[in-house]
Amino acid sequence: GVLSAGLDLSWGGFSVSGGLFLGPVRLDWGRRFAPDPARWGLLTVSRPGVSVGFGIYWGETRAVFYGGIRLFRRMRWVGIFARGQELTISIGGLF
Questions:
Q1: Each residue of 7-25: b (16+ CB within 10 Å) or e?
Q2: pTM above 0.85, yes or no
Q3: Fewer CB atoms < 10 Å away: N or C end of the chain?
Q4: Would you say 89 and 80 are in contact if contact means Cβ atoms under 8 Å apart?
Q5: Where would I find the beta strands (DSSP E) of the chain?
Q6: In a structure prediction context, what are the per-residue pLDDT tens digits for the chain, which is 95 residues long?
Q7: Could you tell me the CA-to-CA distances from 35 to 39, 53, 83 in Å, in that order?
């Protein structure tokens, strides 16, 4: 597998994250050091044309489910993820 690491800096604090690629499975985890600290872990399983991810996001006061799906076609993708009561819809790729 391939291991990746990241550092994100912002005005309010910083985050560290890591990812481990194991063929069609990816495991991501991270931690935010800020006035509103958080930790997360996400497992993503991919097949041609689709990725499904699910995990846990630990906020300052409680843990919530995090999960969603991303569909790929012709070098473009659309995704929808939910975390607690938040819903994120995203698009990307080569346009």
A1: eeeeeeeebebebeeeeee
A2: no
A3: C
A4: yes
A5: 2-10, 13-22, 25-33, 38-47, 50-58, 63-73, 76-83, 86-93
A6: 688 899 999 888 899 999 998 889 999 999 999 988 999 999 999 999 999 999 999 987 889 999 999 999 988 999 999 988 889 999 998 87
A7: 13, 27, 20
For residues 66, 69, 72, 77, the Cα torsion angle rounded to the nearest 10 degrees is -60
* Residue 24, Ramachandran bin (φ over 0: left; ψ between -120 and 50: alpha; else beta): alpha
Which amino acid is present at 64? V
Q: d(Cα 92, Cα 95) in Å, to the nearest integer? A: 8
